[in-house]
Every structure is written in structure tokens, then in C-alpha cells.
Amino acid sequence: MMQSSSSNAASKRRFFSPQMRLQQSKRHFGLAFAIACAVLSSACTDPANVPLPSDICQLELPPVGATQGSGEHSPMVGEKVTVRAVVTAVMPGEGFFVHDPLGDTSPATSEGLWIADPEPPFPGELWAWRGTIAELPAEHNSGTLTALTEINGRQRCAENQTLPVAEFPLPSVQREALESMRVRLPENIQVTQAPNRYRPYTLTAASERVFSPTEMVRPGSAAKTLSERFRAASMDIALPPGRHYYRVGDKLEAVAGVYDLRDRAQLISTAAPQVSAAAGIPQAPSSKGDIRIVSMNLLNYFNGDGQGDGFPTQRGAETPEEFAQQRERTLSAVAALAPDVIAVQELENDGYGAHSAAADFVQGLNQYTNTNHWRFVAANANQPEQQLGGDDIAVGLFYRADRVQPVGASAVLDTSPFNERHRAVLAQGFRLAENSTEQADWLVASVHLKSKGSCPEAGDNANTGDGQACWAPARVAAVEALVPWLKQQAAGAEVLVLGDFNSYRMEDPIRSMARLGMVELVGQSATPPLYSYNWRGQRGTLDFAFATPSLVAKLSQANHWHINSDESDLIQQHSENTDLNAQWRRFSDHDPLYVDITVNAAP
Length: 603
Hints:
Deoxyribonuclease I, Chain A; CATH 2.40.50
């Protein structure tokens, strides 16, 4: 069991009134068995609904820790007991948490308890209750919650008691000894997952930066060890109702609440934690080269029928208003980055006609950059209505015609395995617009590999528990088909492939790219920590830029712009709270990636 702070015993005694100190002087474990039997054990005569003794507030009672025990389950399940403790948090209609302010001498036993009583008292009141000890199952937690149920006697003993509090160490693995106690988290914790539309009243904090394990180490035993470390360092914090805006990296102070195991393990905080040091909102990176190429996951950019109707869409906006907000955020980000070529993922796959998502994106790009130079790359210029692959979403390529020019026709990889689980690849050769030759300087490709979701129960692509989740072999097979195809299409030009690989940095698909001769650019240029995505409080890189080695000498810089993964998607729902000078915040769930190239750099 994880021991409480060595100062707990002393601090607990500071919460007593003179009356409580008198009760403390009476407490000792040598009291006559007859007294304990009269108020504690169901083996003694104690019929249901018999009123508690009139002096119950002065009688010596066993501590709450005796009902909790030192194991995962109470040693007194099914027994009728009487406890006395201070109310710390009330859950209306369900029950309330109590904390024994005196405690016991064992750091292995919890001093908190859940009282399943529909008649709630007020926090800070000292009460005595008689009921039956039970272990209640938790819906999303493999453990159980020790509770006092079937309440058939209650008596208020005092009011306005100072709420007890114990230290909750992070990292910690064995947390059973703190179950249902009011605790305080360390001062050095930071937000790792902000509240979001799925959990608007919950944030996750940790005592260190938390990453997807396979972002840092190879899949297997090392990843499992790191996962356990990050889990031990983290805590979910349930917030009171209201709008809560935090960013990943915000440092918190004075976080206290009840450690709750009724559902998911979490800390119930009755007051929103205060931010002691806010994570800064990064400004758009200045260009350091001649050409900037950007990759952006657009998070389902669907424009309906392109004429104001067609909402809700298959995967994107529910309403025209929602799409207008998404469009503004996205295009604001493009304008801030000022790219020359854009590789996108999750674009509505409805061809390249006048009302398509691709055409809408070009129109918006020209509007937001105050030019008329933006163009899209069509998968088949002779058939503008033709889709790219068979999925609802597709990749795309866009470029500024005054800066670069396409060379030759586009290339599409939509044969196996890119006609199955992965989106079809779109590639295009480009040259500088000022270059009069018809030879491509670069082949740029946009890629979107199969996600880690919809796992099969068996087979090679099932989740083996090594940290890569599922479909890792399928992503490796895609990489092994992709790289030779790219080099063939390039015909001697330098290759730059960007997109969402749905694999973290140390996983097999990313290592396969290196094995096949491709160089990962962000790792060559940027300073750790490196990431582009946040999944359940764990940062990691899913979005990559790879190039043939000859391009590396021309690399000026490459990095992710952290304007999405660190933000809460609640910003998307409440735009009035968005900094107008940072309208691009949280336009997607992936951070955009930029690559700056100096064309005439010495090899």
C-alpha cells in the first residue's frame, strides 16, 4: 500500500474543536469489548432501526480504517457497524464521502468512506452512522468501492468542522489506502488533457509530461513499463459544473478533493483548480527558407453540397454555421503559416467540381491570403468529378501558382493496399515558378494511413498489447508499397511525403520508413518534446514529413505548430471565448506540420 505523508498524523489533529480533542482523549483500543460490541458488530444484539445511543457522539468507536482494512476489500463486508466522521463531499441523490479526522495508526488503511444514504448532511458536519459494510462495483474501474449501506441510524455530533486533508503523492501506483479520503495533490502538477466535448467537466493532470509510450521507446516490455510510469503519475480531476478552459501544459496549484472510486478513479474537486503558470499560445513560426510546405489534418472538412445545404454531412459539420466556423479557423491557420504547398488529410472526397470541398478550400485560401493564386491538384484532370479512392475522406494537394508550378500529371496510388484500409495517395511534381525548365524539383505526396481504431479480435492486425494498438502490420505493408512507388514516380526528383501515418515515432511503420531510406525531418530540425497529437492525456507524433536524403541538406527547419493538440475542443463550441488574434486555435485535433526548404543550399 502507498503510505500517507509522515506528517498526516500531526496534521489530522489540527482539524478538531475542543470537543473533538476531548473525544480523542477517550479513544484508546483497550475499551471494554462490551462497549465495542454494542455499537459495532452484527454478532451482538443490535436490531434494525434501533436508535443510536444518546451518547454516541462521546462513545469510543473503532476508526474508519478498521472498516476499510489494509487490502483491496474490507474485512467487514456484511457486518453492521457504526462509524463517526466528517462529511467532505456530497453527491446529491447518491450519497456522500466522509473522512475520519482522527484516523488510526496504520498508513495502509484509508480514513475515508462512502456513505450510501439518500439523506445528505452538509460538508463540515461531524456525524455518526450505523449501517452495513459492502463493496460496490465500479462501472469503469476493475476494483470496488468500500461503502456503508443500509443506513438505519444517524446522529449529528458537531458542525463547522475543518475538512481533513491528506497528501496524495504522485507518482503512485498503490492508491487503495487513499480511497474516499479528502486529499491534496502535489504543487508541481500540470494539465495533460484539457476538458473536451466528451468529458467537459474532467481534466487530467500529472506530475510530469506524459507521452504515448511508443513515442519514446520501442513497442514491447519497455513501452509497458513506461505506460505504467505515466499512469502512476496521472490523475483525472472531476470539475464542478461550468465552462472550464485549460491548455495542456498549464501548471495547477492548490488542487484538493475526494479520491473517488465509484466509477473511474478520479479526484472530485468542488472548486476549479487555479492555474499558477499558463502554457503560452504559440505564435505562427516565421519562414526560414525559400519554400514552405505544410501538412494539415483538416478534421473532416465537409462543405455539404457546396451551395449551403447538405448538412449534416457524413463525417463533418452538423450545420452550415458549424462549417463556417470550422472553415474560418482552418483558413486562418493557413494564412498565418503562409505556405506555398499544402498537403491535407480528411478532405471531403467529392471530386474537384465547382461545388466540391477542394474547390471551396481554394476559394477560401484565395480569400484569406488576399490572392488569386491558389490551385488544387486534381487526381484526374480529365474527369474533375472523379473521387480519389472510395472512402468518405481523401487526401489533397494545394499550391500557390505564383510560387510553384506543377510538372506533369498528378500520380495516384490506389492499388493494394491503398484500395483497402488506407486512403489513396496523391502525389505531384513541382518546380519553382521562376524556373523555366520542365523538370520537377520535388515530388510532394499526401498520405493518410489506417488508424488504430476498429481493431479485429484476432489475426496479424489484432492488438497484441505491445503498445502499437492494432493494424500495425497493415501500416508497415502500406509503407513498404509506398516508398518504392514514390521513388519511381519522382524520376530522380527529391521526394517529400507528408501526412497522418497514425503511428508513433518508435513504432514499426515509422522505423520502416527509415529502413527504406526516407529521412524524418522534424527529428532532424526541432528540439524535443516532439508531438502533434494528444490521446487521452498522452502526447505523441502521428503527423510526419519524410524526404529522400538529398533534400535534407536543403532543410532550413521543420516542426509542428502546437495550436491544436494542446487545446480543448470546447473552443470550437464557444467561439466567443477565442482570442481574436488567434482565431486558428483548435481548428483540428492534429497540429499542422511545416517544412522550410532553401532551394539553392549547398549540398
